[in-house]
Amino acid sequence: MDDRTRLLHSLSIDRSTPAAPPRRRRPWPILAGGLVAGLAAAAAVWLLVPRDSSAPPPATGVAATAPAPATTSGQAPASAPTAAPAARPRSGLSASGYVVARRKATVAAEITGKVTEVLVEEGMVVEQGQVVARIYSKLVETDLALSRSRSTAAEAAVNAITADLAEAERIFTRTESLSQKNFASEADLTRTRARVHVLRAQLAQAQAQLATARLETQRWSEVLEQHSVKAPFAGVVVDRSAQAGEMVSPMSAGGSFTRTGICTIVDMASIEIEVDVNEAFIGRVQKGGAVRATLDAYPDWTIPAYVIAIVPTANREKATVKVRIGLREKDPRVLPDMAVKVIFVENETAAAPSPASASSLPTPAPADSGSPAANATAAR
Prior knowledge:
The protein contains 6 helices and 15 strands. The protein is α+β, with helices and mostly antiparallel strands. Among the domains are: 94-102 and 268-344, Efflux pump adaptor protein, beta barrel domain (Elongation Factor Tu (Ef-tu), domain 3), CATH 2.40.30; 104-136 and 228-266, CATH 2.40.50.100; 138-226. The protein has a 6-stranded antiparallel beta barrel. A 5-stranded mixed sheet has the order 6-5-3-8-9. A 4-stranded antiparallel sheet has the order 2-10-7-4, with no helix packed on it. The relative contact order is 0.17.
């Protein structure tokens, strides 16, 4: 029992101990309320106090009007001339893509053979039909020479048979005349006639052989021509793939040991831009519309361009439509495969008006149009 009494006594409150003085509350809420009230009063004063309407408005996307002319005391300020605002090009849909060349070809040989000479380097300008490489052609040159010899022999045979035929026809004509006068036998006439027929047949055969020899010569000439690889169009060499001594082929039949191309040529006059536009916004792109292009390599250079065409097919995986964009001016700084960003300009109008048209603007309105009420309405 004594332990319980002692425990209860320890839990009792000693009334003789003086209570601690109450803590003073800091006036932060009062200060915050005063600050908010002051800001509200300042905002009300700024909104309610009238401002000078003659001050120029801040710059916006629309051309600002000219400030009102100064007025003398006792007169209301005249309002600024109200000219119809000119429609300005408005930035619209943006997209990104790459510079591409419509005419780009990897020049390859039409036959399989060993490269003996490559006549171009990267960056070289070539013309259409210019030889860019040569392939080993000694055997073809020999076959061409043999074909020309056979053609010459066939031509000589035709000439010889033609001469014999002319003589045989002359003899046959004389024999026939003598036979009519009974000065030649029928056997002589038959023999001369047969001779003419044989020579005519031989002449036809010789002419056919001559034609065959000429065709063979032409064929070997074309084969020899194939050993000279030529540029299909005028352009700039952007890549040289083969070297002298390598094997080339129109097909990769020899694995990695056989080249399929000699060089790559790009027609710089066919440079254009290709971008992918989300199919949800393709309706905002119009053929012939103005475009502003910016290359990642030259971010401060804006290139004027226009929409050539909208490719009539969509990419199912990316949900985009390809748009072709042409450059209004060709520039050597624009290179294939450069990254580019474009903006399709909307509501673009003609160039700025000339000074003569600017002088025909309407005259200022009468003084009563510049009343304080009108100025207040304009300010709002």
